[in-house]
Amino acid sequence: MSGSEDQRKPMGRDAATRTVDPKLLEMLACPLTKAPLRWDAEKGELISAGARLAYPVRDGVPIMLPSEARQLGDEESGR
C-alpha cells in the first residue's frame, strides 16, 4: 500500500460525525425558521438559534427533523 492510499482510508464514526461539508452547510436551513444553521463540531450538531433546536448529525448525515432535534437551553442558543 502506498502513502497516498493510506490517506484515503475512510474516517471512523466519530470523525465522520464531527465534520460537515462547508458547501452542504451553506445549503442547509432550519426546517422551521428557514434560517441558516451553525455547526457545533464539539457536539456534532447543527444549531438553529431561532428555533432553539440542535439537529443531530449521524454518520455524516444531518437529521433535519424537529422531532429528532434537541431543545437548546438559554445559554446554548445564544440568548
Short description:
With 79 residues, this protein is of the alpha+beta class.
Structure description:
The protein is of the alpha+beta class. The protein has a single domain, classed as N-terminal domain of TfIIb (Single Sheet). 20% of the residues lie in helices and 22% in strands. It contains three helices and five strands, in the order αααβββββ. The protein has helices spanning 3-7, 13-17, 22-27; strands spanning 38-40, 45-48, 53-58, 61-62, 70-71. Strands 1, 2, 3, 4 and 5 form a five-stranded antiparallel β-sheet that branches. Strand 3 and strand 4 form a beta hairpin. The relative contact order is 0.17.
Q: What is the 3D shape? A: globular
Largest sheet: 5 strands, antiparallel
- Structural class by secondary-structure content: alpha+beta
Q: Radius of gyration over alpha carbons?
A: 15 Å
Number of strands: 5
- Percent range for β-strand residues: 15-25%
Could you tell me how far the N terminus lies from the C terminus, measured between alpha carbons in angstroms? Answer: 51 Å
CATH fold description: N-terminal domain of TfIIb
Number of helices: 3
Topology:
Elements: H1 3-7, H2 13-17, H3 22-27, E1 38-40, E2 45-48, E3 53-58, E4 61-62, E5 70-71
Antiparallel strand pairs: 1-2, 2-3, 3-4, 3-5
